């Protein structure tokens, strides 16, 4: 091969390399170029679902692509999160992580949990913190949390409570409360929060703990009576309801949260694009108003900060598992 031909081949190789890099960069810059699915690991109409649909609506405007909410309920949110963990790490499959999927499930399911809440996900951002409320059916003749505890002590094992399932966050929180208060309650597990709430409203079970946004309407209409909040402070929508620390149970901690995660290994630039889009969406006055009406407090943060919150949730529920019987009897 002549020197001239060698130079031509070399120039061609350089041009092809530069072109390939440009194409790759352009492809990355176009993210997202088709719809994104956001998996909610619980049934429709719950608090997690509400938050996800607001994010989908407002963040879609920022990304220029539709975010499609997909409900995949089961096993305390584990089935949906397993789907996210196994998805391609390209930013087109996201999941709504909660204190259940990334906290209590690690204790409730143990070796049966088919994902690692820390290693198998790339955190995007936390979205909101939401108080959990312990409420009773209006027919149960108690008006305060102190009266509830007294009744449970007088009739051990007879007061029933509903949860979305064995090992769910609702199950974990009430069993933790019962162990700290020195009472025994009868757990009635359901396949989802909707069924559990229906029977609590109908009086088939006496009590339920649920995220405030899901229970608030029923409390305001008088079908449920709120007794205590799992939160760091009282809620402005329920100013007369005490938090657990006020009744001498600070070990109960604070409320849960909803955040967005992607599969582990999602490119950092994609993570940042999603983080920025969600944060802009969360500044929308309508978004803020709707979340406030639902009793939620917005807590946008960085992926690194959200990763730390996930680690803290795992540690907290490992500690809870040592003192509470997750699943009850």
UniProtKB/TrEMBL annotation:
InterPro entries: BUG, Bug_dom1. Keywords: Receptor, Signal. It comes from the Bacteria. Pfam families: TctC. Residues 1-22 form the signal peptide. Belongs to the UPF0065 (bug) family. PANTHER family: BLR1237 PROTEIN, TRICARBOXYLATE-BINDING PROTEIN. This is Tripartite-type tricarboxylate transporter receptor subunit TctC. It comes from Advenella incenata.
């Amino acid at each position: 091969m002549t020197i001239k031909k060698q130079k031509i081949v070399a120039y061609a190789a350089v041009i092809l390399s530069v072109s390939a890099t440009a194409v790759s960069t352009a492809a990355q810059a176009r993210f997202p170029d088709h719809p994104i699915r956001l998996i909610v690991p619980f049934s429709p109409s719950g608090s997690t679902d509400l938050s996800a649909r607001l994010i989908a609506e407002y963040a879609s405007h920022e990304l220029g692509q539709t975010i499609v909410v997909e409900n995949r309920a089961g096993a305390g949110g584990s089935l949906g999160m397993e789907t996210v963990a196994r998805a391609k790490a390209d930013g087109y499959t996201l999941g709504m992580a909660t204190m259940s999927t990334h906290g209590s499930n690690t204790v409730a399911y143990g070796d049966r949990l088919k994902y690692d809440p820390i290693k198998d996900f790339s955190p995007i951002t936390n979205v909101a913190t939401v108080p959990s409320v312990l409420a009773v059916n209006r027919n149960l003749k108690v008006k305060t949390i102190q009266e509830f505890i007294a009744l449970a002590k007088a009739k051990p094992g007879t007061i029933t409570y509903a949860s979305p399932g064995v090992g769910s966050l609702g199950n974990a929180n009430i069993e933790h409360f019962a162990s700290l208060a020195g009472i025994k309650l009868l757990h009635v597990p359901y396949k989802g929060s909707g069924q559990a709430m229906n029977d609590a409203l109908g009086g088939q079970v006496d009590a339920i703990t649920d995220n405030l946004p899901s229970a608030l309407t029923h409390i305001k209409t008088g079908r449920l009576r709120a007794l205590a909040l799992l939160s760091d402070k009282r809620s402005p929508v329920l100013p007369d309801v005490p938090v657990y620390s006020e009744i001498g149970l600070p070990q109960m901690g604070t409320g849960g949260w909803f955040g967005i995660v992607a599969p582990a290994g999602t490119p950092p630039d994609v993570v940042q694009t999603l983080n920025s889009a969600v944060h802009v969406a969360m500044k929308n006055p309508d978004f803020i108003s709707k979340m406030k009406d639902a009793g939620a407090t917005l807590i946008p943060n960085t992926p690194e900060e959200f990763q730390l919150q996930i680690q803290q949730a795992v540690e907290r529920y490992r500690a809870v598992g040592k003192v509470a019987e997750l699943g009850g009897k």
